Amino acid sequence: MRKYDVVIIGGGPGGVTTALSARNTYPEKSILLIRREKTPLIPCGVPYVFHTLDVVEDDILPDKPLEKNGVELLVDEVAKVQDNKELILRSGERIKWDKLVLALGSKPFVPPLPGIDKKGVYFVKKEIDYLKELREEVEAARNIVILGGGFIGVEVADELLKKGKTVVLIEKLSSLLPLSMDAEFGIIVAEILKERGAEVVVGTSVKEIIGEENVCGVKLENGKQYPADVVIIAAGYRPNIELAQQMGLEVDPRYGIIVDEYMRTSMKDVFAVGDCVAKRNFLTGEFSKLMLASTATAQGRLVGSNLFDLKVIKEFIGTIGTFSTKIGDTAFGATGLTETQAKSMGIDYLTGVTEVLDRHPGKLPGASKIYIKLIYARYSHVLLGAQLKGGDSVGEWINMLTVMVQNKMTAMEIDTLQIGTHPLLTSSPIAYPVINATVDAIMKWYNKSG
């Protein structure tokens, strides 16, 4: 029987980051990472295996960082966790551990739809052989229906449009990206997809998937039908908690494993990170549905540093939820609360908006308009959230705004930022997006509007 100081179950971004952080912090410890997949994938890259990437194998999450840092890798599955700090694997092998980290990930949500088990109905799974099969089906298909208008759904739709497929995207809520961005941004995403040839249906649910043995279409609650050679379901994910439940850990069936601010579970010496963990909103403390690789890696860095003692003191403020994507030629980003969420929580807020170019002068090559919307608490003037659209610079803008939200910066602190600018790299110093949108909010305070 082998024994390790640290055993990590799960080889996604959270598990890998935990292993690397543990190696950096505790160089003398033995570390084993166990995963089911022989070939793991980069989760955020999965939508791009349908066109932008030449083959599914181009999305592989490399093992070199683990090998380089002396982390042992075992491809197997944990069948049971014993009370005596012993794992029983499917292969029959037994592994002893001192500290255990669960990075069990998530699985696609299967909506209770009649016909969902027909041939030609697929999910967006993080499994290489499954995605190879799906890619082959997509290549041969003409009509493809996607159920779910979140980030995965719209990214897959955009990829399939690039292949020249006939795409119908269906979202039961009233706009695309409904859990991440306000309606005005979702409307823009829908317009981009329509311009590229998609049919976008919002505010209507699917009643059933139709066909005999093979799928031939979908039927909506309003009676309308769409033909489909392939149906792709992108209706969100659920945490993998079966092993945690078998261990007797405290879990929430909908949101995941319950952990404290140091990602410690209800069992001594057992930690959990990533999609399998129940996360809380940074402002309200309520459970959040968000599952992000960036959150998983932040949790992994924290756990890896604190496995044997608290080297990194952290008061975990909860999940902020930072997104970015690109649909067509337009990038989108969001962090913190949306205006819709602030309203639903009864928060007294106001918004600041602006639209400026991200180069100066605007005639420079590569210049694009940045539209930014900031959400501020009315009385504390603290930044609660931000949403952007524009060129590729949005990807880094949203990260900067996340730091501002995380550090509870106020409007006046942001208004007086000392910034660096350059014509080829940034917006003009007199038309800087974050500052201009903040000034718009400040003027609303002064004018008692907004």
How would you describe this structure to a colleague?
- It is a single chain.
- This protein is an alpha/beta fold and 450 residues long.
- It folds into three domains: 173 residues, FAD/NAD(P)-binding domain (3-Layer(bba) Sandwich); 126 residues, FAD/NAD(P)-binding domain (3-Layer(bba) Sandwich); 114 residues, FAD/NAD-linked reductase, C-terminal dimerisation domain (Enolase-like, domain 1, 2-Layer Sandwich).
- The chain has eleven helices and 26 strands.
- The strands form seven sheets. Strands 1, 2, 3, 4, 5, 6 and 19 form a seven-stranded mixed sheet that branches. A five-stranded parallel sheet has the order 8-15-9-10-11, with helices on one face.
- A hairpin with a 2-residue loop joins strand 22 and strand 23.
- Helix 1 packs parallel to helix 7.
- The radius of gyration is 23 Å and the shape is globular.
